[in-house]
Design goal:
about 450 residues, alpha/beta, Urease, subunit C, domain 1, TIM Barrel, 8-stranded mixed β-sheet, 4-stranded parallel β-sheet, globular, disordered C terminus, binds zinc ion
Length: about 450
Amino acid sequence: MSRVRRVLIEGVRIFDGESVAGHGSVEFAGGVITRVVTDPAPRPPVSCEVIDGTGLTLLPGLIDAHTHVFGAESNLELALAFGVTTELDMFMGPPEATRSLCELAGRRDDLADLRSSGLLASAPGGHPGVTMPLLPTVAGPDRADAFVAARQAEGAHFIKIMVDDGANHGMSLPALDRATVTALADAARRRGLLTVAHVSAVWSARLALDSGVDTLTHLPLEAALDEAFARRAAAGGRAVIPTLAMLELSAPRPSPALCAGRSLAHDPRIADHLPEQARTAIAEGHEGLCVERPSPGHRFRHALSSVARLHRAGVPVLAGTDSNHRPDRACPVVHGAALHAELALLVEAGLTPAQALAAATSAPAAHFGLADRGVIAPGRRADLVLVAGDPTEDITATRSIEAIWRSGVRFDREAHRRRVTSGAATERAAPRTKRRTP
Ligand SMILES: [Zn+2]
């Protein structure tokens, strides 16, 4: 990896975060996009690295709006290796370690950048605090402001709120009530923080909507959210992070062949860049983490229907995976890789490929106030992914990664592949010779 003074990608299809802006040239220097020219092509400045973008598409760096990093730097490296330049972590501790990992990710160009909720809000004796005795809980509305203030002091970037009675884990536990969730949402708003509610049933989605939470994550599997819900969510300016990549493992699909996540293990564009342990976890698959014992009445298609309804009503849909993989505990939802399954699942739910790409770039940047990224425009961070083909026609083209830059620094994907894959990888054929890519 080396910093270059100036890079010009010419003749490339540009997806600017919302739509295809046409073919043209994108120049960046000092970590920032300096020029976007669609026609005519600019003369390359002196001492500029020129990349031929013919047949390629340039995307803003991808944002995964729901992950769990578990303090593992390796997860952030894995994310970046699949074009995810920013991860939004939805629960991590202890607070000092979370803060220092966020700071490290801010400095290191070979890791995905990181924002985190830090510790989440849940009811005393509720999920997941019942198994984590040191986790602070919220005993009632009068405790909400102190809870939010403490997370803010610890450096939390947003507030995660559990609205879950443990039913999906085969338990019956106390959950935060409407008055408490409302008080948490109000306290966060006063303090300038967004709220994200974990909802995994119709009752919890309604409670979160009624309580004024900004963002809902996960979706019910026992039934689809109805049109009235979608209209109210849109009118209230809410956003949703469905985490379909995790949900399709929580309510198994009629045939494993339909499972977008599992198919990643057989797609060489993904599998060749995965550590063996992660590849095996994806190939074998198993139930998702939010639902340990799938109920017979749970259907993944309910989640797809809810996404379609929310999207049609105008609710911003943000791509998030609920990646839970870590070096010491394999999980089939793997940082970086899973986002490519999520994109395909959003298209299956009814978004166009361009809308799915917006859900992983401009939409999460706008919702979470990441004003410096998510869009290809002069002045934005040079977080960029160059892929072969046209993902606005075939969403799986996002997997054909030719190059990744974070803050203008190119990620050495081949060195990463060699590091993470087993000895068998060295016996594989050399990667395809590229045309004029550096
Ligand atoms: Zn999660």
